[in-house]
Amino acid sequence: MTQTARVIRVAAFGGPENMTLDEVSVGEPGPGEIRIRHAASGINFIDVYHRSGVYPNPLPLALGAEGAGIVEAVGEGVTHLKPGDRAAYASNVPGSYSTLRVMPARTVVRLPESIDFDTGAAMMLKGLTVQYLLRKTLPVGGLQPGDFVLFHAAAGGVGLIACQWARALGLKLIGTAGSDDKCALALEHGASHAINYRSEDFVRRVDEITGGQKVKVVYDSVGKDTFARSLECLRPFGLAACFGASSGKPPAIELATLAKGSLYVTRPTLFSHIVSPETTQAMADELFAVVARGQVKIPVTRRYPLAEAAQAHRDLESRQTTGCMVLLP
Predict the structure, then answer these.
(1) What is the pLDDT along the chain (329 residues), one digit of tens a residue?
(2) In terms of C-beta distances under 8 Å and separation of at least 24 residues, what long-range contacts does 283-290 make, across chains too?
């Protein structure tokens, strides 16, 4: 059976003005696939990278990396999901900015009844990112309660989840943000300290906060504006994890720079971790558990109709947003 879906696509890489609301035909899922009807779709900076061509994909390109809804049909070989299941996902096959889609099943997980669709759509990419950062992307010796970590963009969607989860783990998260209001928001969500990087030197402040001991790990999704100086915040054998580049690609690093402290640098991605239904569900279950216990609350601060996806991108790129944003079909 073929159905019609509305979908946000781009025919050429560029700005939000290139985004169009199109109608497409959606058929039956093939082997290893499902068909899902969306109740909500998450909005993330990776969508901007896809739209602009920083992370190029074949055109025309349907946008969106996470969503939540009801499974309508499953293809051959799919055993972890069935029609009627509440489900959510983060996927490296874009297309969640739509009312309906067929997609690979391997990164789609069962969504508990206790979590609504808006929250499910808003939490998967960001929440699983925090899970692999705080639980898997670790410095030598790991992280223990009381350890300091530095987290840039702490008032964004990923950052606010990280503030809360770090507090639940007993970590002292030092967050940076671009305004006093955003710093206050990070503190409200569990950051131990917050630094306004527009008015303060974050390297000097980290040194002051830690009593000169610096941090074991820096989690940096800003990139160009912060990453080189992030290395100055690390103690010996510290780890700098660059997992995004909202301000642009970070500059190249001379390996000799790392010799001061035998530092480590990594560029992790979520999609290196969610490689099977079993792994993805296990990571998601840990995320669902901290949400269910109230240790992590998912702040869905903005909701847009699907047709207003371009405006959502403008708002996101203005870097004036906080929390999570979703599209509603």
Answers:
(1) 789 999 999 999 999 999 999 999 999 999 999 999 999 999 988 899 899 998 889 999 999 999 999 999 999 999 999 999 999 999 989 999 999 999 999 999 999 999 999 999 999 999 999 999 999 999 999 999 999 999 999 998 899 999 999 999 999 999 999 899 999 999 999 999 999 999 999 999 999 999 999 999 999 998 677 888 999 999 999 999 999 877 778 888 889 989 989 999 999 999 899 989 999 999 999 999 999 999 999 988 899 999 999 999 999 988 777 778 999 99
(2) 283/128, 283/131, 283/132, 284/88, 284/109, 284/124, 284/128, 285/109, 286/131, 286/135, 287/123, 287/127, 287/128, 287/130, 287/131, 288/112, 288/115, 290/164, 290/165, 290/168
Rg of the chain taking only CA atoms, in angstroms: 20
Burial 130-156 (b: 16+ CB within 10 A, else e): bbbbbbebebeeebeeebbbbbbbbbb
Going by DSSP bridges, is the β-strand pair 234-242/264-266 parallel, antiparallel, or unpaired?
Answer: parallel
Cis omega (within 30 of 0) for bond into 60:
yes
Token pair, residue 127, equals: 């929440």
User: How many CA atoms lie within 13 Å of 265's alpha carbon, on the beta-carbon side?
Assistant: 21
Task: Measure CA of the first residue to CA of the last residue in the chain; give whole Å.
Answer: 21
Q: What is the pTM of this model?
A: 0.88
Beta bridge partner(s), residue 74? 34
Asked whether 286 and 161 are in contact (CB, 8 A), the reply is: no
Q: Which two tokens stand for residue 100?
A: 């309906």
User: What's the token pair of residue 314?
Assistant: 């403008």
Instruction: Decide if 62 contacts 95 (C-beta within 8 A).
Output: yes
